[in-house]
Amino acid sequence: MGPRIFSIGAGSRDKRKADQILNSSGHRWNWEPKTAPKYSEIMSGTQQVARPLVRSLRQATSTTATCQSRPMVAAIRQFSSTPSRSDEPTTTTPAGSDAQKLAADAAVLVQKKASEITAIKQGSEEELAKLLSPELGSRRRRAAIATTGDIPFEQLPYQCFQEARKVLAKDREEKIAKIKAELARIKRIEQTDASTYRGGEVFKQKRLESLRKHVEELKIQADINDPVVKRRFEDGHGDMNKPIYRYLADNKWRSMDYKIITQRIHQFNIVPDILPKFDPTMDVKMTFRGYKAPPGTILDSLITESPPNLRMQVFNSGERLLSVVVMDSDVPNPETDSYGRRLHFMVTNIPWSPTSTSLNLHRLNSKANSESPQGGLPEDGTLAIPWLPPTAQKGSPYHRLSVFVLEHNNNQPLDLGKLKEMYGGREGFSLKSFRDKFDLNPVGFTLFRSVWDEHTAEVMARHGIPGADVEFKQPRVHSLKPPRKARGWEAKRQKPKYKSLWKYSKRIKGLKY
């Protein structure tokens, strides 16, 4: 055991006591006066171990940012299916064309400007956005893309990454072999006569539908773990005609947006006020003049004066026809002391596919064309009922403006003349009746709210909407209890002598004795 070092004050008494201890024990002492401990003395063991490593990393960063002309030397390990042993000499550069390609990539990294590297590591979000678009992902990912050169993602020089891609490629080949076998089985069943089955044609079609569904699941499993597919989807470059990208988009939507819209449906009593039951299966987002309106938000009357734009995404394959309905379910009716419903907008026969993304309702409303000049269906649908700006009278509660997207069963187009005849009056619109009469299926939903604001009267006057001078007030509810007999102070002062105080006890507006 080595000598112990203590720090003792410089007082004479303490010094004499220390001399006695020194003479008796023979240890060496430090007579410097006691001071505050240094930071290195109170650091934890982990901090003391990591401090040299952090210092070396800071020096390497400053060297990279300041020295532009210094060549970059990187030890690059050659691809191998087995790990290298300690007794084998490791190669620092690969042979052949791989060495030339990696050397060129390293040269590209060296030629990057120091200002760009500094901006990536120390700059703000605005400075980083000048180099790479924020659509690429998080700040860390964009910084990594900016500093890795032009190496393709699938050719990154990481041995574990390349070995994992080989395993995934082998698994994908097995899934493709299963898909081919199932497709051959489907073709064989289609060529077989339905009379050979016990259930006849119904059993045959049910069997084919089950096999086709299984093939779609195998297609998803073949690419679900591919990092290139996931990267392309995160970058927004996925082909929605392929099942894997529709599957990933559906999972992303159900992770948060589906939960929010389902919560709004129950929070604002859309079920059962408008429909007895409803579960959305497609993503619908709404924007007014570039403003993204979250579901259930309260919007100004000037913003909702023109119809919105819808961004819709379906997650199943195939073409379909859609109808969009905007309705107000909180129209006050003073005569019956209740609330009615009003149709604000309707467009129908909208062709839609998984690759379709945006529907411009403002352009449809401005054109107001009911038929296509070529005689077929219009590209963006057919306008049945033009846009009526949502308004709310002063004093009335907020109005729920619901936007429903309905899918046509069997892709049957709707008769425009019949729609105008039935719903041209707008008042008393029932979505449930509309769904049942025309064989429609509600698949998408969003909503916003409207209240009386400083611009409502102006919007109502501009579009000829009556009711701007109407103000609703809560009726006064009088007590149903019988008059209370006067007691105490009130009973004592009922005589004419205290007539000046009757205004506090008898002459109360609305009360009779």
UniProtKB/TrEMBL annotation:
Listed GO CC annotations: ribosome
InterPro entries for this protein: PEBP (IPR008914), PEBP-like_sf (IPR036610), PEBP_euk (IPR035810)
Keywords: Ribonucleoprotein, Ribosomal protein
Keyword Ubl conjugation assigned: no
A Pfam family this chain is assigned to: PBP
Composition bias, Polar residues: 79-95
Spans annotated as Disordered: 79-99
PANTHER family, alphabetized: PHOSPHATIDYLETHANOLAMINE-BINDING PROTEIN, PHOSPHATIDYLETHANOLAMINE-BINDING PROTEIN 4
Protein name: Mitochondrial 54S ribosomal protein YmL35
Taxonomic lineage from the root: Eukaryota, Fungi, Dikarya, Ascomycota, Pezizomycotina
